[in-house]
Protein 1
Amino acid sequence: MTASTITDRQPDPLDTEYVLGLVDTALDAIAAAKTSAQLKQVRIDHAGEKSPLALANRAIGTLQPGQRKHAGQLVGQARGRVNQALAARQAEVDAAELEATLLAERVDVTLPVDLHPVGALHPVTALLNDMSDVFISMGWEVVEGPELESEWLNFDALNMPEVHPARGLTDTLFVDPPSDRKLLRTQTSPVQMRTLLSRDVPIYMVSPGKVFRADEYDATHLPMFHQIEGLAVDKGIHLGHLKGTLDHLAKAMFGDVRTRLRPHYFPFTEPSAEMDLECFVCHGESVGNPDRPCRTCKSEGWIEWGGCGVVNPRVLKAAGIDTNVYSGFAFGMGVDRTVMFRNNAPDLRDFVEGDVRFPRSLRGGAR
Ligand code: DAH
């Protein structure tokens, strides 16, 4: 017999020694598998459908019935041992891999957290929300109006005659085509008229929002800024209600301070007033007191806050409201300016340039 015939000779798949040899080889391979991927391959090689043990199992069918019992036991036990070893090793490998994952993904919950700064509302938005909240808590409604407004609602309906200086092209940004008489609203006051026209009295509403004017862009002016408008219309409303409401707002926003009304002119209110806020920093103590100057009110004791008055009956009549029964008060104030003096912000340009250091630098910080 030549060497080649020995190697070429097919082993008898049901030879006892051969089958036991297959088991030993399989057990060695199982013990050597370190990962579930390796063990998967070992399972295919030694217990899979094409493994020598499976072939041996299939060979049983070719035997004479009398010979099958012994062969069946031999192969059955062999396969049982291999499968048991596979299951045991699988459990070990799984446990080891789980352990490794837990170690690798370990989180020390006692470590200080890396706090990523989260976004914050713009200081103007935050203040608008705060001011609106004061009114919501009194049962007032918050109403919004469009920024692109008709000339009629922005001016005419508010008793602003055509000759009023605010209607000159220098202040107002009209929108093409001129024949549409559309403009970027110069004030939130047109929302008063929109509300009067669309709702029944009594009305208690505030309207925060953006307004636009053809102003310079400098430390104290922006072509786009924010106002909050207020309107109350009910039976028997008078100036005292306006004063009480403004004092309440001032206290809610700035602590124990008062407001002051100075006679003024607005076409849509009569009488009209400018309202001042008692300085919430020095409470007037800096006035005539050079030893204690106040930067917030420039030692004047009062800060200009906005305009207000008793609603001109012509405005109510334009909305079809019976002025013998109903009267109202209205007010409007600049919100960017309020943030400025409330938080000691020196330059209005910082409000729109988007540098996050700005809100962080404000007194009281970003909110
Ligand atoms: N709209 C005025 C302005 O932009 C402010 C104002 C004054 C609003 C008096 C009012 C008001 O509602 O009654 O200067």
Protein 2
Amino acid sequence: MTDDDLDVSDEPTDDASPGADKQTSANRANTSATSEPSGQPTSVSDSDESMPSSNPDTDEEVDIDQNRDFEVDLDDVVLDDDTDDDSQGLFDDLLSGEPIFENKEVLRPSYTPHELPHRNEQINNMATILVSALRGDTPSNILIYGKTGTGKTASAKFVSQELESTSKKYQVPCDVEYINCEVTDTQYRVLAQLANEFNEKNRSVIDDKIDELDELLETATDDQTALADTEYDTTDEIKTRIEELRTDREELEEVPMTGWPTDRVYSVFFDAVDYRERVVVIMLDEIDKLVEKSGDDTLYNLSRMNSELEHSRVSIIGISNDLKFTDFLDPRVKSSLGEEEIVFPPYDANQLRDILEHRATDAFKDSALSDDVIPLCAAFAAQEHGDARRALDLLRTAGELAERDQADGVLESHVRKAQEKIELDRVVEVVRTLPTQSKLVLFAIILLEKNGVHNINTGEVYNIYKRLCEEIDADVLTQRRVTDLISELDMLGIVNAVVVSKGRYGRTKEISLSVPIEETEAVLLSDSRLGDIEDVQPFVQARFDN
Ligand code: ADP
Ligand code: MG
């Protein structure tokens, strides 16, 4: 896509009657339960004249308002009486800026949206498969695929909440456990976490049952007829049952987060699942990370559990960004896990626009966004493989930049700056975490560029790279390996390497940097090993003077 495609018409912001806007947003801030408390002082301070005045003689709630008015007055004193600029405190400028956000949290990844536009099909597919759990049958296992930011986690969490609440409504026992395998990335930890969570649920079920029986026991002691509709013939039977439950409860072991043999963890987990009749849905998000880190043992054990469970049934939902991870699975695991597959395709720009519009209504003050902001965020994120997370990040960052500029609203220019900022943050992170050898290769390319070398070829990179290795006593890789590392840097979007034909001299790679040179060099030099390289400049110069 060219930059032209992203050029959304640059219409002036509608800044009619800002006072009225402020009034509405302040009112909204007061009525909306989700509004961010920290956003309030600013919104109130701008509109306090039109706020209902507080009555000192009434209840507590008004007192809170009074408090606010007090803050507001103080603010006004500072701003009105001291015209001298020097008296402005560190926060005054920032506070006096027009508030842009109504509730910034709405744009953060941790926020669970109530609506997921353009995911109906996937959500319905999941529900159709999982509904068997509510009929007491075992749902097929599901594998969910899709690139990052396509709404997999959000949709899966939405469906599991619905499933659990419906199971309560119809009193069909069904539990969903969610595990993020990027964090919980070994078989031990997955099983331990599941065991402990299922046992917590078991404990509360046991406690409820004991309470219920205690009550029955009390009534039945006075009045034997209370036992008529129960499974107990005598109060002694109730007492025995209560004792059994107490023993069960004591026997539920808490698995420590390290230290036990895996067999023992598995056995506690198995008993925890099988303690009572129910369908258990285990959701393994970022499942590819688990397989990458610890192989497929966990999945193997989970997928063959059903044949051994007596009371309960397990169903697994695996979620992955990486379509290829199943190649590494035992064929039995692969076929069991992939009974059903649901694909989450990337969002296109129009879909991203809808998603952003839904979220922006709650996140921003009325008319804080100029018309082209959302379409531009959507267009940028559509380029980035249709990533809704990226789109939301862009919108939030653009809002933050506008806030910092003390602008009246978010403009297209803020989105462009936000795009640069996010891109730079990404580059910094990628470069910072490169292995030393790749850093050396990249540093060699930077040094060549800084010395005005264009269309750099692999040989030139290799020569500088070797000298850099000597400088810091690093192993020198072969030119072939270095060529591979250059290709990796190309795939990461840090350099651009094109193969060009040199006629009878064969083909060669022409390499150029695709990231900002100063910032990238600074990140490289912040690595303690590379930071030791002194004065490479003259040496590079000397080579080219030859
Ligand atoms: P994935 O798990 O596929 O990487 P997520 O479900 O974490 O993606 O989504 C990334 C971000 O985008 C989250 O903040 C999520 O709330 C949001 N999001 C994704 N799809 C939608 C949608 N259809 N509607 C609203 N928000 C969405
Ligand atoms: Mg996810």
Protein 3
Amino acid sequence: MGERFDRVLVWFRRDLRDEDHAALSRALHDARAVYCAFVFDTDILEALPDRADRRVEFIWRSVAALDAALTARGGGLIVRVGRAAEVIPALAQALACDAVFANRDYEPAALARDAQVKAALESVGRSFHLFRDQVIVDPEEVRSASGRPYQVFTPFSRAWLKRLDEAHLSPQPVAVRAARLAPPPRREMPSLEALGFSPTDLLALGVAPGMDGARATWDAFRQRLADYDRLRDRPDLDATSHLSVHLRFGTISVRELVRYALQAGGGAQAWLAELIWREFFQMILFFHPQVVNHAFRAEFDGLPWPGTDADFARWCEGRTGYPLVDAGMRQLRATGFMHNRVRMVVASFLSKHLLVDWRRGERHFARWLLDYELASNNGNWQWAASTGCDAQPWFRIFNPVAQSRRYDPEGRYIRRWVPELSRVPAPAIHAPWEMSPLAQEASGCRIGRDYPAPCVDHGHARERALAWFRAHRHADGG
Ligand code: FAD
């Protein structure tokens, strides 16, 4: 069978692996010679607020690992620094590639960049091809009976499962034609410093980047998968996969994870549902890119959120006086991770107890989360603030103390992240201000001195939020 192309350039972006990789597999099938490239995109790097950023180090290490893996297969990775929209067409030109292959990205900025690259390539007779890889099912493939994209998770999830066939799930082989990989004309891996960044505590935190890191994380999680359904809401236990960063940067194939979960059945079904939530929010962002700056539901858009800068600062720093909220916010800053249940509680607390615009919280998460992903972050924030599609109804307000008692019963998670409360015993730790002055002294934690008093009273904050949502939810656009 004749190849369609003489030379193809595979452009890696958020798919930093050389196994089960759609664009690479297709390129090896369709071309006689295949070059591989990654661009540290200065458009993205320059916009980051901090010069020490765990995500940059994660990518940098994963790119080095990808280069080593491709080199072992007889090829290698061309690594460049610059504006990807310009570097990729120039590289295709320099290497005389007929086409550029990449895996599809659904974020508005990536779509704009890809449109630019496509136009630049086509203007000189080259072509640009995108493949489904980051998700199992492309957003356009799952529609309701009326042909419209879904806005509610459960019917989406049902239709998604029904839509699956071999083509969605089968591995995209690389090894079979790896001999077609071409070595890079010159080798050049910039140091982290050359990119303008300094090293972080990523490895010290136990995060293992690259394909090997993903594999080790996945192998370890499979031992716990059967208990996921029962224990996943417990931040004090290590019951979830920690694969989010690997899914974010594609160091593992989502096809492999979904295939496994489908076969495993039982407790794995709850985990599969989370992977479908990931696809749901990708689909929502793709069809409704306005959610980046606006509420999904017009009745909640442009609300005059009254929360103050001081409220926001207390929340960011983990000084609200609500132990579970503070533990979560401190875990985020210390590690770049926060347990999902706690993310839900802190997001609800900011938007409902403090009535701070959810977009401020979303930006804070975007700055600190190692697994930060526009679609999932925005979708979940809008869920928690009740402004999103299929969101928590506006009148449902988490009680942070009840959540704490239920999901961190012994207070172990709190004690880990809020050392001021380390000697406060279990029942009291969820609402330490209720301890008598004597008990406070005995546990070395006087409220107001060693640990803040609650910044709002739950009952009062709840009533205020209900009244505020009732009064304002039709104010604009409703
Ligand atoms: P597991 O429980 O093992 O789940 C497996 C995978 O499913 C995750 O790795 C993730 O890819 C996906 N997933 C799980 N829960 C969700 C969800 N609710 N929505 C979408 N995908 C999900 N997840 C991100 O990947 N990036 C974000 O920026 C992000 N921001 C969030 C913000 C808020 C306010 C909330 C409430 C949740 C957010 N999540 C985000 C979803 C979820 O908290 C994380 O995916 C999860 O905690 C990651 O841990 P894990 O890999 O151990 O998850």
Protein 4
Amino acid sequence: MMDEERKSRDELAYLCRSLFERGFSVGTAGNVSVRLSDGILMTPTNVRLGDLDPDCISKLDFDGRHVAGDKPTKEVFLHQAFYDTRPDAGAVVHLHSTWATALSCLADIDPDDCVPPLTPYVVMRVGTVKRVPYVKPGDPKMGDMIRDLQGKYAAVLLANHGPVVSGKNLFSTVAAAEELEETARLIVALRGMNTQLLTRDDVAELNATFGRI
Ligand code: ZN
């Protein structure tokens, strides 16, 4: 096994356990993947993110064939859709975390921009978030809907289901998923209150100064 894969398997198990221990994933919900130079590592189906054995993590080739480890998550096409449409994506994190999922269920959010710029951190780490319509779990249409976005969004909310976030590497993508979860919590906490958002100029300044971190 190449060093790159060894290191990524260990990092994936470590960060997934950290997400699990802090309540970002309960039961066997959520799945995480990392792009390698010769394929994709993906969390296996029906396993708690807190209990991953690095050597059992699934590996797929770029054609989606299962080449090593346990059987991959049933939501594998979500991940492939991000990698296929965002060439810079090095990792994808999908959670059913409470507050981002709560936000995904609200009837009156703007589906094209469902996370308003409340803080600079969500702008820098997550950017604009699109909500895509509900389809039943395991429906490959979910992958098609993400492909149809043509890589324009680093993060989406699956309606009545949960967030999917892509990023440069595993560490920054996990941080972005955490930032999205905390921001969703702020959004729900502030609902009905007269709230000040960052201005369009503030957001433009952040994008020009920091890009996506
Ligand atoms: Zn899911």
